[in-house]
Amino acid sequence: APPGSDTYKGWLFKWTNYLKGYQRRWFVLSNGLLSYYRTQAEMAHTCRGTINLSTAHIDTEDSCNIVLSNGGRTYHLKANSEVERQRWVTALELAKAKAIRMRNNQSDDSGDEEPASQSDKSELHGPLKTLSSKLEDLSTCNELIAKHGAALQRSLSELESLRLPADSGEKIKAVNERATLFRITSNAMINACRDFLDLAESHSRKWQRLLQHEREQRIRLEETIEQLAKQHNSLERACRGAPGLASGTASISSTAKAGSVQSAKGEASDEDEETEYFDAMEDAPAFITVTADPKHHRRSGSNLSGASEGHPEDWNLEDSVFESSNQSSYNESTGKDLLPRKRRRSRIPDKPNYSLNLWSIMKNCIGKELSKIPMPVNFNEPLSMLQRLTEDLEYHELLDKAVKCESSTEQMCFVAAFSVSSYSTTVHRTAKPFNPLLGETYELDRLEELGFRSLCEQVSHHPPAAAHHVYSRRGWTLWQEITIASKFRGKYLSIMPLGAIHLEFHSSGNHYVWRKVTSTVHNIIVGKLWIDQSGEIEIVNHKSKDKCQLKFTPYSYFSRDVPRKVTGVVSDADGKAHYVMSGTWDEKMECSKIVHSSHGSTSTEGKQKTVYQTLSPKVLWRKYPLPENAENMYFFSELALTLNEPEERVAPTDSRLRPDQRLMESGRWDEANVEKQRLEEKQRAVRRRREAEAVEALEEGKEYEGYIPLWFERKVDAVTGELICVYKGGYWEAKDKQDWSVCPDIF
Fold first, then answer.
1. Domain 7-103 falls in which CATH fold?
2. pTM summary value
3. Where is the signal peptide (predicted)?
């Protein structure tokens, strides 16, 4: 492209350091920004650096050199020839001038202040647009007046030239003077209107500053009230002691409306900060649960619209699988075909009391590209994301009990409790797990002890994706591919797992599918970190079409309800509700059988509530207590303490063998940071090699397959229609033979 166009591209040599000197880079000049890449192929995915020309200084050292400086960033560039250098200088100067003009125009619109919101701008520019429109109307009228006035004066002049009586000439002259005076007056009125519009435009900046100041004051006041409300709530909870689930004969469950809950499709939510919290007092309950007396539960449904009846004999404690839902010894309820549990470690070295010195992090980042800045292990916990994914199996016995259920809706209750239990370990776990390397695996072989074996593999690096497969000889199989999407919103970080979780029971063929909710880490910048779960889960049995709608209520400082509350309803294919689920995602989940349902009163929003009369709730799941001294061991559960325990015969790509993670667990964080940086650089080198191979294949017209997972393969799921990674077999056979020849050297 010519230098005067909006986009200019080409090769230049860029100074890197004293060891490598000048390196050839591909530069792209567009929209006032100069960006560079290592290769042309990188333009699709990786930008190495960008400089804004509107505030940059352009200098030329000699016949071929160009120096660009913007604040603390300086680019030393060299062209192949003086002619090429002059082309780039011309293009840079033109782009800089255009960028400055655009910035000044934006500055004029915003009054050199912070941009106001859209509503503020509309308030300011609305009257100005009206005034401008009226001024245009007046200008049109002025032109017409001037046109007709000139014609009138010509006519009067022609009359003066005629031979008329003296008194008539005097009258014509007076009329001519009046017409001239009228035209002058109309012009003065138009000029006054134009001056008024200019004055309004000049004052618009002052109005914008005043409105912006008021808006900032309002935001500060809201934040102060929010902080005071949180402190007040903390003080109340401290006075009451540990909060528990409200108990009584009647409880109101604020949950999403059954039938209007949308199915989570796995897309990342674009919610604003205002939607993160909502006033729980304004969230009208969709249904009311009333505990019924089992002996007198029968009521006539003739006068109730849409009533449905249940039978208490279905809720027999002696015969029901719910009887074994208490957290007793697992070996007693899973059969005699399992061996006694192997003794495993119950503690790890205490977490070192390292203060996080920001300068020690910053000094290692000076002069480095953003993509190469290593995040220290100070923010991590000594587990990988693959191990955290495996942690979802901590309460696997819920699925073993679900196998015994004869009713699909009863089985759904256990599946729903299992989906909630996977969040119980997150309440205190604010540290992030290690990002797995591409090709990294993690196995958890508990086939002889607990009846299942699990395998995870990192199947993609950009975007990061992990595939997981679990087989249980107790009668179920679970698989999933999870991709993590995150959005940093200033005060908090939203983590959105994308992908469906599949669970299939061997004997019945029931196939359940659900997706995870959004996790939010609060107080990222200032304050103590805390985690909340919010959103909705729809669990669907694709064989029987049963559904369970679960709602994770976000924390609200206005609500007096139990924090971290989860509520839901289990219904069959016809939409008839059978069970009510209630509890908290960090403590326990209960299930109540519905014996009667009816339409109750209408809410203030005009939506009718449903009243469920239920039998006494039964606890399906209760969280295990944390081990002793857990606060000094990253708040790990008993299972989490064993996940990184060294084991023999695992694959060379297993997370247990990752050196930086092992060093961090041992308390040697400085060495772990060095090792982590080495592994990341090694992975970048492999990625660069793959990119070079892709470019070479593209130039030769060949198809480049890219990375192929070791133990998983991509297939279209028959249920969801999505392309996911499923286990293709071979891992456990390779382990038996100890043949790991297909495993890459990633550590």
1. PH-domain like (2.30.29)
2. 0.60
3. none
